[in-house]
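Good morning C.,

I know you're traveling, so I'll keep this short. The sequence:
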Amino acid sequence: MRRSHLAVMAALAVAAPAHGAESAGYPDRPIRFVIGSAAGSGPDIIARVLSDRLYKSWEQRIVVDARPGVAGALSAEIVARASPDGYTWLMMTSQLFIATKVYKDLRFDLDKDFASIGLIGTVPYVLVVSPQLPVKSVSDLIQLSKKTQLRHGSAGAGGGEHLCMVYFLHMAGTQMLHVPYKGIVQALGDAAAREIHTTFAVVPAALPMVQGGRVRPLGVSSTKRAALLPDVPPIADTIPGFENFGWYSVIAPIGTPKAILDKVSAEVVKAVKEPEFGEQLKLLGIDIVGDRAELDAFRRSEDKRMGEIVKSANLQVN
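The tokens, ready to paste straight into the viewer:
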């Protein structure tokens, strides 16, 4: 009986890894990094930059898997059902918090189904218009919208760009017709082609078209000028109190071993603090933030902030 008991204890000792053993050889195979936006979007750009940086440390591929749909909710459902072994990550952005407030019957819970890894940073939106539109400022656009039926695009109903525009229109006291797309790149392309008149986009996604003269920037959603668009004034200069921003973070399915979460978080924080990678983020307009604890606190504050904006703007999706 004693021998049997000792055998069981020995087996359990082998089965139960020592503290930190889960992360000792991690990662030993490619990691899937799911994003809820289309290729060329802000999350896609940031995910690829981060993946390239982490490959240098681990020599393991991080495969960016774009799964746009339902304001990012589709990507969250995929990751929520994934094995909590550290080999599936999710790029969580502000649009997921919006989705939880405007869509019903979602098959995930942001609070209960995901563990924080790290907060990469925040980024402002920029309001752009078709170059042929006869407006030069935010005030011009507001005045024209009160005389003419204008069309604004977004990366999808209930997404970050949609909320930003609804909030803008609410505070400006005007209206436009919403045209949803499958991704912000398509919306920007149609703004350049005059199929729609205007859209909001995070600075990294809009910058190539702004620099190429294909769309005209009118204002940024931050209260200060964006480093990448120093000649573009804050929308708050015209609409006092207007402020909104997008952000990027990394999370994993709940139940992922703490040792792995800590290891990934430490590497992400190390990366964003390095001059080379940090400069890459700054060149994309990202204000760098940090670790798991900071992301936990940020998630709580953003849940409240997004809720207030959704309520005040009366954002609804069909």
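Safe travels,
E.
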